[in-house]
């Protein structure tokens, strides 16, 4: 795959990069190992100082990082600015909390002293996607570096400048050169890197295929992995819900990042009593969205990241319509330069169509009608994915059932699904395993050592 910055709003190739050769991969692995030998002994206070310095750089130059993200993958500039600032938040969060999360935990046993100690593993490989090119990396890197691990980043091939900029941020913040390195390599080199003895574990955010491939390679080498894969998140609206709030939130939940988010609301499951009202409100909101240059602060929806993503999304829509689904809004690529697909709503979706069975990674909302909560939960759980779920109700009994019965890594009641450094994030089923963020995230890549002293 070509490693290049290609402006998705125009199709222009801005800059290309040569993949590094095996000799340079070897040099970076050796540097990571050498750095770890001293880095893991550095006190929390020093690592926290560096991580807070990284947060300062992220906040102070948020507009610059945002322009780079928008140039490479097309997200609206305001969302890109927010992404840079959220990365600063996760840095500050772990700078403050890591000493508490990784402190020895005393356990009363028949020994004179027994406790659990958390120790770093070594070099961790992160295989990251293009859709949140800064956030996905920093939510791995901040806890990994505070735990005393060192990181190696294999970023998506269409965001190479973001990948290099992130490594520069950590260096400028004061981290040793080998603490966090970017590898400009194609996906064909991932298995080779994972298999190397100096890599102790790996994490991947991306497709099911990529996750399965990484996990298989790591499994052969008996190495820990954390996977955050696809999602087909339900957005359930029941009779008792505040429908107007649900509609307003639904637009954000589906259109965030031009619809290219694993935790975007994708399947809108509506109780029959409020379905017409919700549908009409959503149509009006979608039709009012401004499509255009993602560098323009007034743009609501920008281009999809690549022509292939555009083609795949349109194929899914056309196949669904041909098999009986109705396009209420949108439904075809825009006739203009760039990878633009309009906000689209599909309804009357038959079983066996892509809209019923697959993840749609773009600004397409899928509407389903149900008789009540039993049918809503059954439909929500009918997908092979289990990342997030949003549900809207004012009834306490319904709320408790939704929390208990929805098969997902996170359930948000009366709000959109989002990641938060203070809460664990991850999925079940084919959405992956393991957790990022919070205390659970920082403990994924440590040796949880039992100590017993008589």
UniProtKB/TrEMBL annotation:
Methyltransferase keyword on record: no
- Domain (Aldehyde dehydrogenase): residue spans on this chain: 2-451
Q: Which GO terms describe its molecular function?
A: aldehyde dehydrogenase [NAD(P)+] activity; succinate-semialdehyde dehydrogenase (NAD+) activity
Key words, A-Z: NADP, Oxidoreductase
Pfam families, alphabetized: Aldedh (PF00171)
Note whether Ribonucleoprotein occurs among the keywords.
no
The organism's place on the tree of life at top rank: Bacteria
Under Gene3D superfamilies, the record lists:
Aldehyde Dehydrogenase, Chain A, domain 1, Aldehyde Dehydrogenase, Chain A, domain 2
Q: By its UniProt entry, which PANTHER family does this protein fall under?
A: SUCCINATE SEMIALDEHYDE DEHYDROGENASE [NAD(P)+] SAD
Sequence similarity:
Belongs to the aldehyde dehydrogenase family.
Q: What is this protein called?
A: NAD-dependent succinate-semialdehyde dehydrogenase
Q: Which organism is it from?
A: Oxynema aestuarii AP17
């Amino acid at each position: 795959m070509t490693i290049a910055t290609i402006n998705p709003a125009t199709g222009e190739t801005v800059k290309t990069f040569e993949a590094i050769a095996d000799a340079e991969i070897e040099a970076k692995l050796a540097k990571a190992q050498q750095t770890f030998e001293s880095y893991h002994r550095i006190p929390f206070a020093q690592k926290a100082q560096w991580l807070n310095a990284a947060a300062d750089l992220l906040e102070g130059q948020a507009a610059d990082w945002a322009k780079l993200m928008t140039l490479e993958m097309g997200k609206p500039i305001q969302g890109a600015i927010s992404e840079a600032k959220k990365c600063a938040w996760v840095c500050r969060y772990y700078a403050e909390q890591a000493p508490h999360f990784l402190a020895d935990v005393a356990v009363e046993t028949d020994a004179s002293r027994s406790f659990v100690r958390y120790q770093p593993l070594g070099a961790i490989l992160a295989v990251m996607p293009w859709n949140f090119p800064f956030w996905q990396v920093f939510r791995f890197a901040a806890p990994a570096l505070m735990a005393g691990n060192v990181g190696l980043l294999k970023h998506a091939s269409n965001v190479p400048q973001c990948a290099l900029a992130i490594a520069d941020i950590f260096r400028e913040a004061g981290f040793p050169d080998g603490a966090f390195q970017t590898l400009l390599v194609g996906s064909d080199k991932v298995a080779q890197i994972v298999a190397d003895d100096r890599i102790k574990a790996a994490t991947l955010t991306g497709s099911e295929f990529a996750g399965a491939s990484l996990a298989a390679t790591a499994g052969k080498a008996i190495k820990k992995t954390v996977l955050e894969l696809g999602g087909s998140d339900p957005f359930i609206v029941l009779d008792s819900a505040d429908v107007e709030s649900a509609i307003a939130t639904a637009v954000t939940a589906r259109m965030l990042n031009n619809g290219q988010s694993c935790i975007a609301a994708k399947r809108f499951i509506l109780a029959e009593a409020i379905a017409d009202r919700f549908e009409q409100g959503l149509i009006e909101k979608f039709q009012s969205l401004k499509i255009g240059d993602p560098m323009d602060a007034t743009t609501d929806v920008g281009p999809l990241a690549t022509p292939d993503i555009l083609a795949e999304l349109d194929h899914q829509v056309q196949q669904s319509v041909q098999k009986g689904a109705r396009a209420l809004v949108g439904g075809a690529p825009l006739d203009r330069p760039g990878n633009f697909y309009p906000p689209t709503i599909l309804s009357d979706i038959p079983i066996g169509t892509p809209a019923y069975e697959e993840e749609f990674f773009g600004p397409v909302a899928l509407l389903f009608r149900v008789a009540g909560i039993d049918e809503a939960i059954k439909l929500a759980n009918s997908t092979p994915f289990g990342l997030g779920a949003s549900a809207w109700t004012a009834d306490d009994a319904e709320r408790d059932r939704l929390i208990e019965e929805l098969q997902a890594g996170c359930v948000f009641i009366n709000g959109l699904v989002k990641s938060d450094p203070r809460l664990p994030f991850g999925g079940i089923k084919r959405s992956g395993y393991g957790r990022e963020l919070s205390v659970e995230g920082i403990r994924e890549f440590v040796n949880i050592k039992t100590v017993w002293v008589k």
